[in-house]
Design brief:
The complex is a heterodimer. Chain A is mainly alpha-helical. Chain A has helices spanning about 20-40, 50-70, 75-90, 105-135, 145-180, 185-215, and strands spanning about 10-15, 15-20. Chain A has one domain (about 60-215). The N and C termini of chain A lie far apart (about 45 Å). Chain B has a domain at about 145-245. Chain B is rod-shaped. The chains are: A mainly alpha, B alpha+beta.
Chain lengths: ~220, ~250
């Protein structure tokens, strides 16, 4: 029997199994892209309400990045902004009936963790150079290098597991409540799920920003 | 728990694709719009700054113009004040001169009136005195003997210059010459001979004497011929005294 928290493959594309999480992710991607395109395809300085909301959203994210990194958020905005918007949309997707959060399956947080891990080192190398970037692992003490290297993996692992654990456990609790108490009692827990989804998106993005800041020398960890 | 590595890879690719899509359809347009808005704001700020500078320049120009107008106004006021002072001074001088002229004219008129009044008073006084003296003399003449007048008239004839006496004598030498003796009171007929006896030798010639009266003489006597007149009448003396009094040269 397949685990309810397994990939839940919907169909095969050649050798590639297409899971529900991937399909949901495609839907989220399509929704985000479509909304952005529709709202900003004729963007003008005196834009409409949707354009204004998107501008406020993007500027707020950029302001948060600027506060943490203490520099121009331009190079980091596409990655970190997309991370937050995707996590927000993916975490809140279960509001729609029959939709699961892609982040409640381990593959999606793992993929995001992998991308954050690679991005941390890419930004660190680009900002500080190879020598400078490798040198920062020896600080504050070269004797701590093994722990420092280990923490590079464990913090990404904790980032991934925190997101997955929260979203998966929330989904599990809702399933148990629906099984035991029908459809009315889970409603408050679904509202709690909205809060959890927003908080987890925020925490994941902020921690990723802090890790990138540490790699480029903008943040002491 | 099992991990589907295909799904993990697909999700990583999906996220990378989403980053590209949002960079193209979300972040780029937003940043472009913000840049355009910022440029508009900066342009508006520059335009506002230029407008402000122009307004300040205009205000400065107006301030300078106002200062120039104020200075010009002060100059005009000072010139007008000076002109007014000069005009007032000239008017005052003119008024003072006119007043002095009026005063001089008034003083002259007063003096003239005073002199006229004085002369008139003197004349009236002289006339009054002459009248009084005339009445006194007229009253006195009646109490004086005619012989006194006779001697006075004879002395007056004798006191005439030689040429006058010669002309008297010539008048008396003409045939039928009559010399009239005029007195204020009529001479008694019995005195006519005495008068003739006393005067004819003095007059000379062969004429005769006639006698007449004229109250206007007041006293004394006159001898009237065709071309001569010898006065010894008091009226003439009073008239001469009155003239002296009226002229104010009596003192």
């Amino acid at each position: 029997m397949e685990s309810p928290f397994g990939p839940q493959v919907l169909f095969q594309f050649g050798p590639v199994p297409i899971s529900r999480a991937v399909v949901t992710t495609w839907a989220v991607m399509a929704a985000l892209t479509l909304v952005s395109w529709l709202a900003l395809r004729r963007a003008r300085p005196e834009g409409g309400p949707v354009q204004t909301v998107l501008e406020i959203l993007v500027e707020t994210i950029a302001a948060q990045i600027r506060v943490i990194l203490q520099r121009d958020p331009g190079p980091y905005l596409p990655l970190l902004g997309t991370l937050f918007l995707f996590l927000l949309a993916a975490n809140l997707a279960p509001i729609l009936p029959g939709v699961i959060a892609p982040t409640s399956r381990i593959e999606t947080p793992a993929a995001l963790g992998l991308i954050v891990f690679l991005s941390i080192h890419a930004f660190g190398l680009r900002e500080q150079g190879l020598r400078g970037y490798l040198g920062h692992f020896l600080k504050p003490n070269p004797l701590l290098l093994p722990l420092t290297l280990l923490s590079e993996f464990t913090r990404i692992l904790s980032l991934m597991v925190r997101l997955f654990g929260n979203m998966m456990s929330h989904e599990l609790i809702l399933a148990i409540l629906v099984y035991l108490a029908g459809f009315i009692l889970p409603v408050p827990f679904m509202l709690l799920g909205v809060l959890i989804g927003v908080i987890q998106a925020y925490i994941f993005t902020i921690l990723a920003t802090v890790y990138i800041g540490a790699a480029i020398g903008a943040v002491e960890t | 728990m099992q991990i589907d590595w295909w799904t993990l890879g697909l999700q990583a690719v999906n996220f990378a694709v989403l980053v590209w899509l949002l960079r193209r359809f979300l972040y780029a347009p937003v940043r472009r719009v913000i840049a355009e808005r910022k440029a508009l704001v900066e342009a508006a700020q520059i335009e506002a700054a230029e407008a402000k500078a122009a307004a300040e320049a205009e205000a400065e120009r107006l301030r300078q113009a106002q200062e120039a107008l104020e200075a010009e106004r002060q100059d005009v006021l000072e010139a007008a004040a000076k002109e007014a002072v000069e005009a007032a001074r000239a008017t005052a001088a003119e008024a003072q001169s006119a007043a002095q002229t009026q005063i001089a004219k008034a003083q002259a008129a007063i003096a003239a009136q005073r002199q006229s009044a004085l002369v008139e008073a003197q004349g009236e006084l002289a006339a009054l005195a002459a009248g009084i003296a005339g009445r006194i003399l007229q009253d006195s003449a009646a109490k004086i003997a005619p012989g006194v007048f006779l001697e006075g008239l004879a002395a007056a004839i004798e006191a005439l210059p030689e040429a006058e006496r010669a002309r008297l004598a010539a008048d008396m030498a003409k045939p039928g010459a009559v010399a009239t003796v005029v007195t204020a009171l009529p001479l008694p007929p019995q005195d006519h001979a005495a008068w003739s006896a006393r005067l004819m030798p003095v007059l000379g010639g062969s004429g005769t004497l006639a006698f007449a009266e004229d109250a206007a003489l007041l006293g004394g006597a006159e001898l009237r011929l065709a071309h001569s007149l010898v006065k010894f009448g008091w009226a003439d003396r009073v008239t001469a005294a009155q003239a002296l009094m009226a002229d104010g040269e009596h003192d």
